[in-house]
Write a structure and sequence with these properties.
Elements (H helix, E strand, L loop, with lengths): L6 H13 L4 H9 L16 H26 L3 E12 H7 L5 E8 L4 E6 L1 H11 L15 H12 L1 H9 L6 E8 L13 E11 L2 E10 H4 L8 H5 L8 H12 L5 E4 L7 H5 L17 E5 L2 E11 L2 E9 L10
Antiparallel strand pairs: 1-5, 2-3, 2-4, 3-6, 5-6, 7-8, 8-9, 9-10
Helix pairs in contact: 3-7
Main location: other
Pfam family, one: FliMN_C
Subcellular location: Bacterial flagellum basal body; Cell membrane
Length: 332
């Protein structure tokens, strides 16, 4: 990307050249020299800045959904927000998590591969304490989970994937499903050590306890839908078909709407004097013959023609023709 100089920088550069502080020939030599950029093949760049921005937007929504979910479940103050979205080798992520932590391994069909939601023990045990009637405090020493604790944590964290599904709806319809709950990261091998992952770090605060929740998504899992993470996808609206139940509900509401329907017998023009002098028994001559069909308007648009008559002792109109949208004969 070419750097654009501001006006102040241009003035300073011209002043330096004029005073002799800088040599134009040396600048030309520097420009002709090849610029070398260090590239670490162990930290392959698979996600562009555009992809990182999209992942950030998606998981900011995820953080809001989680805040609402955990606040309702724990009945206490919970605040979750995205701290960073980085790309790094899977091995580096595994080495950074504690030896004893909560690893929620899950799949998200139709994407292929496994992902992991890592919850710091401080956060996980504060949730557990709150669910079991405590104040939401985490223990000073973290021990292995009992069978009952494992079941409780599986239940609460398996429901967090509903929030993840909702957050991803604008990009791709995924069906996250809990596969297993692990506590030792050394036994968790999702992908090869050098495989690039996207690491979404969420700062979590429950009452007075704080910690991190990390979402690890391997690049190989997201690779089939990488084009959907571009800015173009976010701004180009796609037409989505409505579900049958939504269409049925909409049709039911529309069918109950009331519309003004008028059958016009004809029109006539009167002067103001004639109008003022009208009295009971006077006859107004219309511009239509009794043998012509009546114009029946819905609102101010001509929709039907028909013949006047009676039905069960009441005035009625029999429909003789229906005008479709765009046909000749529509009223203004």
């Amino acid at each position: 990307m070419v750097d654009v100089l501001s006006q102040n920088e241009i003035d300073a550069l011209l002043a330096a050249l004029s005073s002799g502080e800088m040599d134009a020939e040396e600048l030309k030599k520097e420009e002709t020299q090849k610029k070398i950029r260090v590239y670490d093949f162990k930290r392959a760049v698979r996600f562009s800045k555009d992809h990182i921005r999209s992942l950030t937007r998606i998981h900011e929504n995820f953080a809001r959904y989680l805040t609402t979910y955990f606040s309702a479940q724990l009945r206490t103050f919970v605040h979750i927000n995205v701290v960073s979205v980085d790309q790094l080798p899977y091995d580096e992520f595994i080495r950074s998590v504690p030896k004893m932590t909560i690893l929620n391994v899950f799949e998200a069909e139709p994407l292929e591969g496994r992902m992991v939601l890592e919850v710091h023990p401080n956060v996980a045990f504060a949730m557990l304490d709150r669910l079991l009637g405590g104040q939401g405090m985490s223990p000073s020493k973290v021990n292995a989970l009992t069978e009952i604790e494992t079941v409780i944590m599986e239940r609460i964290f398996s429901r967090t994937f509903d929030s993840l599904q909702e957050a991803w709806k604008t990009v791709y319809d995924i069906q996250p499903r809990m596969e297993a709950l692990e506590t030792n990261p050394q036994f968790l091998q999702l992908v090869s050590p050098n495989e690039t992952i996207a690491l979404i770090s969420l700062s979590t605060k429950i009452g007075d306890t704080s910690g991190m929740i990390n979402l690890c998504i391997p690049h190989v899992v997201l690779e089939p839908i990488m084009p959907r993470l571009s800015v173009h996808h976010w701004f180009v609206s796609q037409k989505k078909s409505r579900a049958p139940e939504e269409v049925s509900a909409l049709e039911g509401r529309v069918s109950k709407a009331k519309l003004p329907i008028v059958a016009e017998l004809g029109q006539s023009q009167l002067s103001i004097r004639e109008f003022i002098n009208l009295a009971v028994g006077d006859v107004i001559s219309l511009d239509k013959s009794i043998h012509e069909d009546l114009q029946i308007k819905v609102g101010n648009k001509l929709k039907f023609t028909g013949n006047p008559g009676t039905f069960k002792g009441r005035l009625a109109v029999q429909i003789s023709e229906i005008f479709e949208e765009g046909e000749e004969g529509h009223g203004e």
